[in-house]
């Protein structure tokens, strides 16, 4: 049902890695601006990383040097590579993206979220 589909979450131990993926569920849509957010239990959803259509990236301080946001325009997919995971990274991770179709911006849509759990 959602216009964005996320995958790649799971349960890992501290120091391990995960790669999250985000892609439109309908092939006629393409992604423009993309951002990853996360929401830990009891907290509000917070920005983690973002990437523009040109590939410019930004990160929240707590993940700099460990997380990498990227995009493959040919595959119309965005990724969040998470290395050196820490227990405090545990959260539901959400992808949001500005979707385009036939040159029209349809605005920001959200994925359903994928659980990332890091044990110590």
Give your account of this protein's structure.
This protein is mostly beta strands. The chain has no helices and 11 strands. It has strands at residues 4-7, 10-13, 18-24, 30-39, 46-51, 57-59, 67-72, 77-82, 91-101, 104-110, 114-119. Strands 2, 4, 5, 6, 9, 10 and 11 form a 7-stranded mixed beta sheet that branches. A 4-stranded antiparallel beta sheet has the order 1-3-8-7, with no helix packed on it. Strand 7 (67-72) and strand 8 (77-82) form a beta hairpin. The chain is globular and about 45 Å long. The model has no long low-confidence stretch (mean pLDDT 95).
User: What is the overall shape?
Assistant: globular
Q: What gyration radius follows from the Cα positions, in whole Å?
A: 14 Å
Structural class computed from helices and strand pairing: mainly beta
Give the percentage of residues in beta strands: over 45%
Please estimate the helix content: under 10%
What do the pLDDT scores average to?
95
Key features of this structure:
120 residues; mainly beta; 4-stranded antiparallel beta sheet; 11 strands; 58% strand
Strand-helix topology:
Layout: E1 4-7, E2 10-13, E3 18-24, E4 30-39, E5 46-51, E6 57-59, E7 67-72, E8 77-82, E9 91-101, E10 104-110, E11 114-119
Parallel strand pairs: 2-11
Antiparallel strand pairs: 1-3, 3-8, 4-5, 4-9, 5-6, 7-8, 9-10, 9-11
Concise overview:
The protein has 120 residues and is mainly β. It has strands spanning 4-7, 10-13, 18-24, 30-39, 46-51, 57-59, 67-72, 77-82, 91-101, 104-110, 114-119.
């Amino acid at each position: 049902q959602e216009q964005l589909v996320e995958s790649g979450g799971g349960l890992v131990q501290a120091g391990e890695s995960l790669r999250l993926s985000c892609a439109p569920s309908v092939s006629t849509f393409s992604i423009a601006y993309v951002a990853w957010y996360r929401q830990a239990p009891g907290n509000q959803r917070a920005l983690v990383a973002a990437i523009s259509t040109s590939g410019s990236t930004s990160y929240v301080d707590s993940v700099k040097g460990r997380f990498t946001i990227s995009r493959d325009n040919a595959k119309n997919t965005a990724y969040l590579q998470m290395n050196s995971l820490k227990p405090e990274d545990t959260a539901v991770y959400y992808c949001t993206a500005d979707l385009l179709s036939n040159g029209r911006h349809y605005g920001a849509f959200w994925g359903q979220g994928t659980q990332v759990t890091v044990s110590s």
